[in-house]
Amino acid sequence: MKEVRLKLGNSSYDIYIGAGLIVQIGQLLKKAGLDGKAVIITNPKVKSLYGDVIEQNLTGEGFKVIVLQIPEGEEQKSLEVAGSLYRELSTFYAERTTPIIALGGGVIGDLAGFVAATFLRGVPFIQIPTTLLAQVDSSIGGKVAVNYGRLKNKIGAFYQPRMVISDINILKTLTPEDLSDGLAEAIKYGVIWDKELFSFFESNIDRIKALDESLVEEVVFRSAKIKAEVVEKDERDFAIRNILNYGHTIGHGIEAVSEFKVQHGEAVAIGMIAAGKISHKMGILDKNELIRLESVIKQAGLPTKVPDLDAGKIIDAIKHDKKILKCKVRFILPKSIGSVFITEEVNLSLIREALID
Ligand SMILES: NC(=O)c1ccc[n+]([C@@H]2O[C@H](COP(=O)([O-])OP(=O)(O)OC[C@H]3O[C@@H](n4cnc5c(N)ncnc54)[C@H](O)[C@@H]3O)[C@@H](O)[C@H]2O)c1
Ligand SMILES: [Zn+2]
């Protein structure tokens, strides 16, 4: 097992990464001083795969457990669903010391975290992320949220979990598409922060895709370490945490115009390359580095070009996205592999060129 400590004063916590950790959950919770009742929030698919093992483990350690299930899908991240969870929590007489355990991908993590942050003004929150995206990204850093109408992730809080338990074995039941989705975010860390992590992908991507245990553990560990470091420097996302949005400015535009038919990781992958092209056209990113970026993304099973979508509509969507500050679009662009810069001086015609190139 590997561990990453995210240091935020009284809100510090450990991220545990390893194969087979779901059978140690009860002990890890007890080690953190938790006991009594516990609530698992999950969905039917994840419950059928892993719910029983976890429930048995917790019951064996003396916890009184309830499992609350919500259906699949982004639309479940809503105030209505949060409301129904509050009702079930009060029926169970959940107390201020009762941990809420998110068992699932980012949808469950964001929703359960929002409920944990608000029920009784905050109860202990445990993340058991079950997708690669959730293990390398959404379970770390304390952003919890629901959607409200067209406001995606806009109703929420910064609420750090007590711990994150990332069991690598759980990833074996993901579809190749869901795995590639998470890989996009992990590759992102290499580009924005760590050129050695990027080289690690260049050397090992095929074996990572085949879920070689020690390589996947290394990917989750290194990614978690980078995300933790960035969050430690800027928990509330006023400054350096912005760099985690690399690939997302254009990515969100593509997701919106495709009406979310293009998956998040795919959109981010295209966005990362487009940002690379913009940087190259501005005379900053070297051609050779752009080629390396395209090659790793392709090998990860991700698209490199904008699908059959209107570049003008994507630019309009970008202009309406949250990254507009005083009518300027904020871009995170690679300087070289392993380092990025933030700029609001990208010409719209350059974005168009990068999209149709
Ligand atoms: N809070 C943050 O910082 C943050 C960061 C990035 C993304 N997000 C949010 O995360 C969400 C996306 O998360 P996601 O990509 O994990 O999607 P998801 O939660 O919808 O999971 C994707 C699919 O995988 C299934 N699944 C989960 N674990 C599985 C497993 N081990 N085996 C088989 N199937 C499994 C789910 O049932 C679902 O069908 C979005 O709502 C996004 O807004 C939040
Ligand atoms: Zn993302």
Structural description of this entry:
The protein has 357 residues and is an alpha/beta fold. It folds into two domains: 2-169, Rossmann fold, CATH 3.40.50.1970; 176-356, Dehydroquinate synthase-like - alpha domain (Dehydroquinate synthase-like, alpha domain, Up-down Bundle), CATH 1.20.1090.10. It is built from 13 helices and 13 strands. It has helices at residues 25-31, 44-60, 79-91, 106-118, 132-138, 176-193, 195-209, 213-233, 248-257, 264-281, 287-299, 311-320, 348-356, and strands spanning 2-6, 13-18, 37-42, 64-69, 100-104, 125-129, 143-148, 151-158, 163-167, 324-325, 328-329, 331-336, 339-343. The strands form four sheets. A seven-stranded mixed sheet has the order 1-2-9-6-5-3-4, sandwiched between helices. The chain has a two-stranded antiparallel sheet with strand order 7-8. A hairpin with a 6-residue loop joins strand 1 (2-6) and strand 2 (13-18). Helix 6 (176-193) packs parallel to helix 10, helix 10 runs antiparallel to helix 11 (287-299) and helix 10 packs across helix 13 (348-356). Residues 185, 248, 264, 268 line the site of zinc ion. Residues 43, 45-46, 49, 72, 74, 77, 104-108, 110, 130-131, 133-134, 137-138, 141, 143, 153, 170, 173-174, 178, 181 line the site of nicotinamide-adenine-dinucleotide.
